[in-house]
Hints:
This protein has helices at residues 42-59, 61-72, 77-88, 94-100, 104-113; strands at residues 10-11, 20-23, 26-33, 36-41, 116-119, 125-129. Helix 2 (61-72) crosses helix 3 (77-88). The protein has a 3-stranded mixed sheet with strand order 1-5-6, with helices on one face. Strands 2-3-4 form a 3-stranded antiparallel sheet. The chain has one domain. It is of the alpha+beta class. It is 42% helix and 21% strand. It is elongated and about 60 Å long.
Amino acid sequence: MTKALFEGLVLDEAGNPLPVAYVGAEPTYVYSEGGFKYHVDARQVDQQVLDALMQQISQNQDLVSQSILKFLDKDDLFTKAAVDTAIRNMDKNLPALFEQGIPEQTRAYLGMLGFRVVINRHGEVLDLDMPAAAIDEDEL
């Protein structure tokens, strides 16, 4: 059974969080409008968000790699190679991510950082608020 990856982080255009409901085995975000409930395919929404995240990571691969190495407190060639390979092969891990989902604690942390996804009733991502920290190049 697949999971809604960003449960609790997906909002309607008015800023209301959208609950998750299952239609059969498929997760949906439930968008209420004018007394009607629209079941928006969660995978469609989640894939749009993941595509945007992967694009950001790809565009900033060197910075992401350096930040991960700093976080791990590692600065050796083998760890760098492993991190770079993991970044290049992110898309190969998506099927497992949809099966396992993102842990509730991680989603809560993302929400506290300001991560939000705003969609319309058609499942189109209208706004994606991603937390961004100012990074001092001298710290890397």
